[in-house]
Input
Amino acid sequence: MRALNVIEVDAGAGEGGGQVFRTALALAAVTGTSVRLRGIRARRQPPGLKPQHVTAAEALAQIVDGTLQGAVLGSQDVLFTPGAIRPGRYRFDIGTAGATTLVLHCLLWPLACAEGPSELTLTGGTHVPWSPPVHYLDAVLFPALRRMGIEAHVALRRWGFFPRGGGEIVVTIEPRRPWRAIHLVRGTRPESIRGISTVAGLPRSIAERQRDRALAALAAAGWSGDIALEEGVAASPGSCLFLACHAEDAWGGATALGERGRPAEAVADAAVTELLAFLVAEAGCDPYLADQLILPMALATGTSRLTTSRITGHLMSAIELIRHFLGCPVKIGGTVGEPGSVTLEGIGGTVIGEARMAGDLQPEAHGVQRGGGATTTEAGARIRKPRATDGPAIQRLLGQFARKGELLPRTLNEVYRNLRDFVVAESGGEVIGVCGLSVYWEDLSEIRSLAVDEAHGGKGLGTALVQACLDEAAALGIKRVFALTYRPGFFARLGFRELDKRELPEKIWKDCIQCAKFHCCDETALIRDVHLR
Output
């Protein structure tokens, strides 16, 4: 299958580096859309493609049976037309110390969308400047991806330092769909810090000095650590200190590389300073993880949220590409160089297979069969008014999303007092979804407390629940229904339009003024008219 349209990308815009090139190619491969990139690495010296970029493009073309024009060293203009994604075993050699991890970023996402497992063997740099080391994949990125349902594992067979490279990694990818939304908004303190101090072709004492200095610096800042020592085999001598920490809702890592004339203590200080900046910010992601998660967040089902210790140009470039290719609603809190947040509504994996043609990126329709006092969705769930015995289940479901910061917490007493406002989705005798309709005035009501169990996402239950509330508003003669949400795209597809919150004084003075986020609300207000019966 060949794509029928071409997306034009100014690869020199934003941060203007290789990340734009790799992300655009990956998005093209996943969506089945041809892409032309102009001005590739225009701001770098020298500009244009380097060996690792050419390797990534050629490897991707092989994996997705695609065609390339202009993918040669120094080129700033490339046209890529993808075909079908083919899982399997592949081996690619950059031929220099170019980063194997960056080449992987171009290949991982299409293979994670394939119909079968894959194994990639990549040869080049494994621990080189301006790129995440292999240990970062193993300790930070891949564990976060597994939270989303993306199974990937990496094995380091040989270290590769600058300038000769020669390192080798093996990555296995087991596709699973749909991908789940991820929420990394730190609420708990990481328990400890783990790491590895390595030398290759250098005295072991250098690794020991890196470790000892790092542990002392961490202890001085009030953190404990466990740093292993390793002597690697590599074509070029080198040293590396990698540190990582994680909690249930936070992941971060930091790396520093040795170089001629740089003392081991300076290497340790650089890594510790970077990690402490993440820890002090109390964010859910370090700056590098944030931009690496944007693409899978866009392809996941549901709304993902993360906070990061520093918004970077790479993050903003990734978001702009996602908007350009997929049109995902994204809300950014903060400015470049400062801590911030990202809320992104994924398209739910609808781009896989034939539906990945650019004109078909629409959510699936999920009808409901109406009868009696309840409706039945095509997925087999019943939409009905709740019974008193549903109270605890409703509270637990709302609590899942309250802990992620997407809904306000509700006590069981509040659930019972407002029970008649709710409708629920039931499957197998279990409440798997809930939504409420709150009346404000004779012509105004609010959709609120919309929650669907993550295990049942992507089945149209949210749409069915909102529709049930709209039907109830129509039956009551209410002409307008509004919502405050982190998922504006979802409501826009149901006919809602954005408006200024100040146009909802009834909501502001009844509820919002009591909210902790009254002065810094980051939700979007939308409203729609109701067709009265």
Q: What stands out?
A: The two ends are 47 Å apart (CA to CA). The CA atoms of residues 244 and 253 lie 4 Å apart. The chain is about 30% helix and 30% strand.
